[in-house]
Amino acid sequence: MAQSLGRLISILYRKNQAYLNEALVVYDLTASEQAVLMYLYKKSPVTQDEIAHYLQLDKASITRTLQSLMKKEYVTKKKDAADKRYNLVSITEKGAAIKPTIMEKLQDWNRFLLEDFDQEQQEFIYNSLLDIVEKAEKYEG
């Protein structure tokens, strides 16, 4: 294949980030902060390490993002009662209150990207990307 799959994925990623940054500016949220909130909506409380592992980001990036989210009162962080070496991150009421809007913005973006494809094509695209991600996760470089 002469085309660059990485280039196309990079373009999609950058466009996704730009869309989310614009769509969530009213909540003073960035695309990076949204990703952390989405994980916390699924599982809260969690350690910073769990967030970093799930999002495939370094601990320093997660620390900066969490500091910003705490300052904006979307999350809280406290010591794990069972193991004081770990901080547990939890979503706040303010953070939980914006979940429907974030979900709506993500669905709007997905609809926009996939509106020209029928259901079968959409499933093929999703499953193909999932297969590619699973393959990429096996890379240890």
SSE diagram, text form:
Elements: H1 5-23, H2 31-42, E1 46-47, H3 48-55, H4 59-71, E2 75-79, E3 87-91, H5 93-97, H6 99-114, H7 119-137
Antiparallel strand pairs: 1-3, 2-3
Domain HTH marR-type: 1-134
Organism: Candidatus Enterococcus moelleringii
Protein name: MarR family transcriptional regulator
Overview of this structure, please?
The protein is mostly helical and about 140 residues long. It has a single domain (about 5-135), classed as Arc Repressor Mutant, subunit A, CATH 1.10.10.10. About 65% of the residues lie in helices and about 10% in strands. It has seven helices and three strands; from the N terminus they run ααβααββααα. The longest helix is centred in the N-terminal third of the chain and has 19 residues, at about 5-25. The chain starts with a helix and ends with a helix. The relative contact order is 0.11. InterPro entries: HTH_MarR-typ, WH-like_DNA-bd_sf, WH_DNA-bd_sf.
Per DSSP, the total helix count is 7
What percent of the residues sit in helical stretches (DSSP H or I)? Answer: 55-70%
Largest sheet: 3 strands, antiparallel
**Intertermini distance:** 22 Å
Assembly level: single chain
Low-pLDDT sequence parts: none
What CATH calls the topology is Arc Repressor Mutant, subunit A
What gross morphology would you assign?
globular
Number of domains: 1
CATH architecture verdict: Orthogonal Bundle
Compute the number of strand runs: 3
Q: How do the strands line up in the largest sheet?
A: 1-3-2
- In the CATH scheme, the class would be Mainly Alpha
Per CATH, the superfamily is Winged helix-like DNA-binding domain superfamily/Winged helix DNA-binding domain
Strand residues, percent: 5-15%
Output the radius of gyration.
17 Å
What value does the average pLDDT take?
93
Elements, N to C (H/E): HHEHHEEHHH
Structural class: mainly alpha
